[in-house]
Design goal:
The structure holds 2 protein chains of 2 kinds. Chain A is an all-alpha fold. Helices cover 81% and strands 0% of the residues of chain A. Chain A has 7 helices and no strands. Chain A has helices at 2-23, 31-66, 68-76, 80-105, 109-140, 155-191, 201-225. Chain B is an all-alpha fold. Chain B has one domain: Cytochrome C Oxidase, Chain A (Up-down Bundle), CATH 1.20.210.10. Chain B contains 18 helices and no strands. In chain B, helix 4 runs antiparallel to helix 8 (204-236), helix 8 runs parallel beside helix 10 (290-304) and helix 9 runs antiparallel to helix 13 (356-379). Chain B is globular and about 70 Å long. The chains are: A mainly alpha, B mainly alpha. Chains A and B meet through helix 2 and helix 6 of A and helix 7, helix 8 and helix 9 of B.
């Protein structure tokens, strides 16, 4: 009994020392420290992101206050159905991302891949709708700032709204593209067995990032699509 | 057994000891290093290079101003010179200098870590920094930019035909370098401390850089997005900031100064951290009021985000906003004064000695006090309306940035040079350089207070003849100041080859970084240190002095 216990301890300690030698970079004492450092680093990065979008949203708020009716006109030119669809797509992707993190914590390799692939697919659907259904449609309507032919009421300020729309959703889409890149990387890493044995930190951090990008959209959707009420 | 083995190894180790400088050789071992100490050197050379670029621009400006009608350049070239000077000095020298050179080198050593939390990210920061720097060098070579470092709109977006885009791009990119450095430092300080290194035992340099890192992380993204908007407005001609197209130029000023004022505390806070180290080491006393000095760094960092409107008293902001920003700006005087008083109180009854780093530190206290007090003048709305955009403002912020930040950087560089190189520089020349810097500085910027008060506006290539005497004094001072900066470059370079060995702790100073060899081993310490005493535990000297001499 006791020798069995000893053997288990020995086994786990060699396993952990092996894992230590293999996975923990030299500046860290152990995997716990590495995990804590990486998580904190991600949160600090997200704080930076909040202020990055914050500067833009503050500017948006000021012009929305100054040119409310123009912003309402601009908002009504957006396709709220596609916008709402995309919101739903992203909320689903957040769910699958959370499931992927949970699977990683439980060390279920196949589940990790499955949920990461689902998240990636949702992300790509979002980007497809954004670029080809929405941006392209608004461009054809002459609402894009590079090709602005709208000549109705408050035209210059509607252009300002459309500019904010393109910059805000563009910046968000850029983050989505980066997120999809991260998903692809994580899928490959999972298939190569990098996350076996409970080392789920990168997936957890990618999850934080993904949820953050989703939350940004949760703010963008009402701010851009729902000004002045739609129906 | 082990000790016998160690003893056997001792004698060859005396002649050839492996440390971080000679562990690897070759250009790749530097450009691809993840060692925080080597990255500090990468930053040292690159920021010094940019300091020279910015310094040359300043020298040409001062040369031009010795004659009322301009001695050297056309007014338009002059505009480009002060833009180059401001942008290079702020984004490519002052902001990175202390954090990335001294901070990179010292943070892991002071907290007893082997490296920063993310060494690869640290190297990436340097590459991003160099990309930004190259982008700005391109701007200079391609023909320059003439908007001033502030990029005020609609001048920068609609009215100038210079290389605003690439300059804004350079600032945008450099922001990410600072963000990543700040992120790395925050995580390192939180998660990498050695056993026993509690928050209340951290050296105050660490506290100062911790506060600075917060500003990096929270202010830099705002300038990044602002620069994106400037670039987009230039390309697509949409009126975010151009009033002719429905935009608001004052919005740009709000965004810019929301970053811009915290930025100036990015410049001064790290040097304040250096000061706490220097003052305690050379008066051989514990810091007076450790908690207050540590907290005042955070006080400054927090208030720095609430004072940006004092740059805009004459930009048409509301009276009530003006009152608020004026009051908040004066509030900064409290944590700043806490620091100055506590340093002075630390000197009291200490056994003060005046080696070169201490001379810089003493200079810092005097010059920073003048710079800080004139800041209170400028925070007063009525007086600011009178002094706005005059040389009074120029003198004020140079007392903070040059008299404060650079003095602190030079002091820190002299203090830790023996640790970084293992070599000692000639103290006589170093003291002389500190003295020349102090004299040259005062002669350069002292007259500018008077010039400003008499009404000479900043950023003008020509001026009325009655200002000539003071301008000549200022230019003469600048040439003395230049000597004060050139001398250290010479004797510090000399010391690397010819200087005597410094030994682990030439100043008999406290702190983990002094308990390891100079230059330090690759992993900083032979074994992870365990901290058992407060920071600056001077006064336990006799016992430790015996240990050191044996």
């Amino acid at each position: 009994m006791s020798s069995e216990a000893d053997a288990t301890i020995l086994k786990t300690s060699t396993a952990s020392s092996k894992a230590h030698a293999l996975t923990v970079p030299e500046q860290f004492d152990d995997a716990t420290q590495q995990h804590a450092a990486a998580s904190l680093g991600m949160w600090v990065f997200l704080a930076t992101e909040v202020l990055f979008f914050g500067g833009l949203l503050a500017s948006y708020t000021i012009y929305r206050y100054l040119y409310y009716s123009a912003f309402m006109i601009g908002s009504h030119h957006l396709d709220v159905v596609w916008g709402a669809t995309n919101t739903a797509v992203l909320i689903c992707s957040s769910l699958t991302m959370a499931m992927a993190v949970r699977a990683a914590q439980l060390d279920k390799q196949k589940h990790i891949v499955f949920f990461l692939v689902l998240t990636l697919i949702f992300g790509l659907i979002f980007l497809y709708i954004k670029f080809f259904e929405e941006w392209w449609g608004e461009y054809k309507e002459g609402l894009a700032p590079i090709h602005f032919t709208y000549a109705g009421l408050h035209a210059p300020h509607v252009e300002l709204f459309m500019f904010f729309y393109y910059v805000l959703t563009g910046l968000h889409a850029l983050h989505m593209i980066v997120g999809c890149g991260i998903m692809i990387t994580l899928i490959i890493m999972t298939l190569r067995g990098k996350f076996k044995g409970g080392r789920f930190n990168p997936i957890e951090n990618a999850g934080l990032y993904w949820h953050f990008v989703d939350i940004v959209w949760i703010f963008l959707f009402p701010l851009l699509y729902l000004i002045g009420g739609r129906y | 057994m082990a000790s016998a083995g160690e003893a056997a190894l001792q004698s060859p180790a005396e002649t050839y000891r492996v440390h971080y400088l000679n562990a690897k050789y070759g250009i790749k071992s530097w450009l691809l290093t993840t060692d925080h100490k080597r990255i500090a050197w990468l930053y040292f050379f690159s920021t010094t290079f940019f300091f020279i670029v910015g310094g040359v621009a300043a020298a040409m400006m001062r040369l031009n101003l010795i004659e009322p009608q301009g001695f050297l350049v056309e007014p338009d070239t002059y505009n480009k010179l002060f833009t180059i000077h401001g942008t290079v000095m702020i984004f490519f020298f002052l902001a990175p200098a202390v954090p990335t050179v001294l901070g990179n080198f010292l943070i892991p050593m002071m907290i007893g870590a082997r490296d920063v939390a993310f060494p690869k990210l640290n190297l990436l920061s340097w590459y991003i920094f160099m990309t930004a720097g190259t982008c700005f060098l391109y701007t200079i070579i391609a023909g320059g930019v003439n908007t001033g470092w502030t990029f005020y709109t609609p001048l920068s977006t609609s009215y100038v035909n210079t290389h605003v885009f690439s300059a804004a791009m350079a600032v945008f990119i450099s922001g990410f370098s600072s963000i990543l450095t700040g992120l790395n430092f925050i995580v390192t300080i939180h998660k990498m401390r050695a056993p026993g290194m509690t928050w209340s035992r951290l050296p105050l340099f660490i506290w100062a850089l911790y506060a600075t890192s917060f500003i990096f992380v929270l202010a830099m993204p705002v300038i990044a997005i602002t620069m994106v908007l400037v670039m987009l407005e230039r390309v697509f001609h949409v009126g975010i900031f151009d009033p002719a197209l429905g935009g608001d130029p004052v919005l740009f000023q709000h965004l810019f100064w929301f970053f811009g004022h915290p930025e100036v505390y990015i410049l001064i806070l790290p040097s304040m951290g250096v000061m706490s180290e220097l003052i305690t080491a050379f008066s051989r006393r514990r810091i007076f009021g450790y908690g207050f000095v540590a907290a005042s760094s955070f006080g400054i960092a927090i208030i720095s985000f609430l004072v940006w409107g004092h740059h805009m008293f004459v930009s048409g902001e509301s009276v009530y906003a003006g009152i608020f920003f004026s009051a908040m700006s004066m509030l900064v005087a409290i944590p700043s004064a806490i620091k100055v008083f506590n340093w002075t109180a630390t000197l009291y009854k200490g056994s003060v000695s005046f080696e070169a780093p201490m001379l810089y530190a003493i200079g810092f206290i005097g010059l920073f006090t003048i710079g800080g007090l004139t800041g209170v003048f400028l925070a007063t709305i009525g007086l600011d309306v009178f002094l706005h955009d005059t040389y009074f403002v120029v003198a004020h912020f140079h007392f903070i940035m040059v008299g404060g930040a650079i003095m602190g950087y030079m002091g820190g560089l002299h203090f830790w040079w023996p640790k970084m190189t293992g070599k000692m520089y000639p103290d006589y020349w170093a003291r002389l350089a500190a003295f020349i810097t102090f004299v040259g500085f005062n002669l350069t910027f002292g007259p500018q207070f008077i010039l400003g008060f008499e009404g000479m506006p900043r950023r003008y290539a020509i001026y009325p003849a009655r200002f000539q005497l003071l301008n000549i004094m200022s230019s003469a001072g600048a040439s003395i100041l230049a000597v004060g900066y050139l001398m250290p470059m010479i004797y510090l370079a000399w010391s690397i080859k010819y200087g005597p060995d410094a030994g682990p702790n030439p100043w008999k100073a406290k702190g983990l970084e002094w308990e390891t060899e100079s230059p330090p081993p690759v992993h900083n310490f032979e074994s992870t240190p365990v901290v058992t005493e407060e920071a600056y535990a001077y006064g336990t000297e006799p016992a430790r002095a015996v240990a050191v001499s044996s």
